[in-house]
Amino acid sequence: MNRIFIDIGNSRIKYAISEDGHYEYLGAELTEDFLSNIDELLFAEFNQIDEVYFSTVGNQHIVEELKSLIHEAWQLIPIQLSTQKSCCGLQSGYKDFHKLGSDRWMAMLGGLSMTQMPYIVVDAGTALTVDAVVDGMHKGGFIVPGLRTMRHSLANGAALLEMTDEDDLDEEADTMLAKDTAGGILAGTLYMSASFINHLIADLNHQVGTQFKVLLTGGDAVQLASLLDCRFAYVPDLVLLGMVHMVESVKNR
Asked: Quick check: is 50 catalytic?
């Protein structure tokens, strides 16, 4: 059984294939690039696909376009995976489980497929989310603005604050202090996010009385990684791993 898994985020699409249970992460593309190059990225590479699954937090227009392209190429109707009250030994901590984003749920399922330890998922995307799981129970989480969201908010809210690309951050500087406005925004938001993660994980470790395994994912994870105090595993395809875990656990019953 050959299955394609697609994670539709706010700005990027990640995708993977499971061929008779053998998983391969295929990569991540900007949404527009993925849709424009889907023939080359997917359809030309894989002729025989039996099922397609997707999870989304994004624009419904993107979902409909993707479904149409897949149906035309493979004559398949993609199946949407959503948050559940419980699945595969994971219990949602939300009173109304429908309100928990599917990206957070799938990432936690991905974590469950990797470890039996208490674990924390840090997803650094448009929003920076942190979720804690102990003994299969989602204990709850936090949501704060992601790096790009904070940076764009500053640039849009204050006319005199110029914005630049993350690539322009001076990594060779002899001090963490920025020498221009754009650099101040880039470095300030980076340290702010990293400090939030560091303090939160330390507090949770103290509160629970154990060391959480930390799983880091999301488009901004690489920027934050060097500033984190804790040991962590960087898992760029954590949401996809959760999707695969959900589908194959159910199918193999």
From this structure: no
